[in-house]
Design goal:
It holds the Pfam family GcrA. Helices cover 23% and strands 2% of the residues. By secondary structure, it is mainly α. Among the domains are: 40 residues; 53 residues, no CATH class. The longest helix has 13 residues. It binds a DNA duplex through helix 3.
Length: 176
DNA sequence: CCCTGATTCGC
DNA sequence: GCGAATCAGG
């Protein structure tokens, strides 16, 4: 996948809309990372958005001690009207590729939006939502509770009592 | 801990 | 030109 004009345009619109790089990266869902997005933005010269290039900033050249001292002559920020009569640029031509959430719902999934495996963090509930074979398969994604397993508070309880009806056979009850 | 963007560097 | 790695901050 390369940066086609369409993608670049979309990237610009999103970026100018105020979406974060990671958010844009996810939205594009082309396997891009936020680094890729930021890198492209940087290359495009859109870095430092919404920032008023009035002065000061461009005047200072800070030699970052990352590896080598690179002679930064000047920041290429011509602050020019990139939008050339493209009013639609401010709008998001989305909705066409609506993910269309699966119609079937588990018993309850109201506390948080299910996340894809990509968005799953170590601290997120791994309770499966939907059919693992389906492309819409997602995880609970709620805050995980340390100690009780890879699930959130809600699902942790379910995980260990999948068959509540079965309680007829009450577990051993020790005295003391 | 999570997140954010900015910049440099190797391919 | 591209994106990862890194830096720097919230």
């Amino acid at each position: 996948m390369s940066w086609t004009d369409e993608r670049i345009d979309l990237l610009q619109s999103m970026w100018l809309q105020g979406m974060s790089a990671s958010r844009i990266a996810k939205e594009l869902a082309n396997g891009l990372t936020r680094n890729a997005v930021i890198g492209k933005v940087y290359r495009l010269g859109l870095s430092g958005r919404a920032k008023t290039p009035s002065a000061t900033v461009a005047a200072h050249s800070h030699p970052r001690p990352q590896h080598k001292s690179t002679p930064r002559p000047s920041a290429p920020r011509p602050s020019s009207p990139m939008v050339q009569g493209n009013t639609a640029l401010a709008m998001q031509p989305m909705a066409s590729a609506a993910p269309a959430p699966a119609p079937n719902k588990e018993v309850v999934v109201a506390m948080a939006e299910p996340v894809t495996i990509m968005d799953l963090r170590e601290s997120m509930c791994r309770w499966p939502i939907g059919d693992p074979t389906a492309s819409e398969f997602r995880f609970c994604g709620a805050k995980k509770i340390p100690g009780v397993g890879p699930y959130c508070a809600c699902h942790a309880g379910v995980a260990y009592q999948p068959q509540l009806d079965r309680r007829r056979q009450r577990p051993v009850q020790k005295t003391g």
